[in-house]
Write a structure and sequence with these properties.
The chain has 257 residues and is mainly beta. The chain is built from no helices and 20 strands. The chain folds into 2 domains: 93 residues, Immunoglobulin-like (Sandwich); 154 residues, no CATH class. Strands 10, 12, 14, 15, 16, 17 and 20 form a 7-stranded antiparallel sheet that branches.
């Protein structure tokens, strides 16, 4: 089959010049003559995110998009010489509404004590959350001071957890409530008019036990419809630090019928 299509990110921006890797799931297979294997098929999208005509043999494939190892979906290709848009071949489990696991890697370098946002692979891309989608997030943050030497160097590590949602185009941290308290519920049920302010839990791992340095903040960026992570090299006005974070997400996209 000939597979075509357009690859976008969650803000409908084309995934320009992005490597798309088709990984066969039905191989290896045993055969009378030996073991049948199938090589990965690799393509690169155009500046408009267009996937050029790609010939695939029948079978099931994992489609890996870009460098994030969890940025993938699955397709099933029939035995056909026809041309099909890749979205028509997606397995049911990867359609909106099915739970999805995602992973982002963020980076930034700071040289002063200005609060700074970490970006996806340091590229300027943000973690955009699709409309009518909820994320539960776990962020593992690491900071390391630039330089070299034989003594101790400055290291910080934190874990941040929470939830965020995009409700009809408005992005907010997920609010809390209390089924046992009528101030924050109605008849023991969730009531959007009775909410407790959302909170992100920050767990200390290593470094400044007061969390004055780093002062990591995960919040909702409604302007860019994204989950945002910001850090501050507090009191370090002329020191270089490298920051990196792994963000693991559980995602559900669901529009009520």
């Amino acid at each position: 089959m000939i597979v075509t299509g357009t690859i976008l990110d969650s803000s409908d921006t084309p995934r320009a010049n992005t490597e798309i890797r088709f990984i066969p799931e039905d191989c290896p297979q045993s055969d009378a003559l030996g073991v049948i294997t199938a090589p990965h098929v690799v393509k690169t999208t155009s500046a408009l995110g267009v996937l050029s005509a790609t010939v695939l043999e029948q079978g099931r494939y994992i489609v890996q998009v870009g460098r994030n190892k969890r940025d993938f979906f699955k397709i099933t290709v029939p035995d056909s010489a026809a041309t099909a848009d890749i979205k028509t071949l997606m397995d049911a489990g990867t359609f909106p509404g099915a739970p999805t696991r995602l992973e982002y890697f963020l980076e930034i370098t700071t040289t002063d004590n200005t609060q700074t946002e970490l970006l996806v692979e340091g590229s300027g891309t943000r973690m955009v959350i699709p409309t009518d989608t909820a994320w539960a997030f776990e962020i593992l943050l690491l900071c390391f001071q630039g330089g070299s030497g034989t003594g101790n160097r400055h290291v910080e590590a934190r874990r941040l957890t929470g939830a965020i949602h995009n409700n009809g185009g408005t992005v907010r941290l997920a609010p809390n409530w209390d089924a046992t308290n009528p101030t924050y519920s109605t008849s023991g049920r969730f009531d959007p008019a009775k909410l407790i302010a959302p909170a992100v839990t920050t767990t200390f791992i290593a470094g400044d036990i007061s969390n004055t340095f780093a002062a990591a903040v995960a919040d909702a960026d409604d302007t860019n419809k994204a989950l945002r992570l910001k850090v501050t090299a507090t009191n370090e006005v002329a020191t270089t630090f490298k920051w990196a974070a792994r963000v693991r997400l559980e995602q559900i996209t669901y529009t009520a019928v």
